[in-house]
Fold:
Amino acid sequence: MLPQLSAEQVHAALPWLALAETLTQAFVAPPEAPVRTAHAMSAADTLLFMPAWNERAIGMKLVTVIPTAGHFGGHTVDASYLLLDRATGSPRAMLDGEALTVRRTAATSALAARALAAPSPTRLLVVGTGRLAPYMVRAYHALHPTLQHIVVWGRNAETTQQLATELLDHGLPVSAATSLADAVHEADIVSCVTTAREPVVLGEWLRAGTHLDLVGGFTPAMREADDVAVSRARIVVDSMDSALKEAGDLTQPLAVGIISHDAIAGDLGAVLRGEVMARRSAQDITLFKSVGHALEDLAAALLAGAAFLTPSS
Structure:
């Protein structure tokens, strides 16, 4: 029977520091990872397919987006990850895809901030209170030991306070923000994990030296930051091909000439290999735009499922 790793097992197998190191290696020497494909199963339902492979393993993530799934006891977005042996093509393990995704997404953002943010950041703002938000807080806290204040903001004040209290109860220095504009202006790092279709963060709020992390938008119709924010920033992406196809925060201002392709310094792999210097001064505003990359899934799955891909398996 094919071994299956539950959400709890996946989270336990991916400690933040080890995951960040694994992701660094994957970005520096990336596996084959074609741009994900999306298939419309109906007017509302979508199937996403994200494959990647290296000399050791093949990984495939299947993601379903079914808005009516809740009526049948499911989740609007669900995911499964299948890990196969590269030499034989044989299935080795099935992993909980949601746990894998939130873990690797948060770790990638925190890792990118180590390369792009100003040294020794002390204040983080997380915009959004959905499923990814608490993992973003935990990943940044683990990878940025100089952080002293972490603030969360959401449209619903009660939900925001509940999230802040939950994280504070777990020993994290978290509080709830009441003014988004003030919180953005005070932050060294602003991380957005929303599903917004209109900009939430305005460029006029950003002070010099801020690092802006845009995570939530994954279609051309979604925006988390306005044109002013994007035009002020030196931009790095997780995947050039995917970002220029799917990231509304970039495709929209590119389409109307607010920014040119030259505004995108490169991808995270190039930064980590030392080929691109994203931050050139303490005054630079930097921006990391991620839409999700299959290389992150494969790297995390290999770390979580190491026992199933040993030579003796």
Residues 62 and 127 are 27 Å apart (CA to CA). The first helix runs from residue 7 to 13.
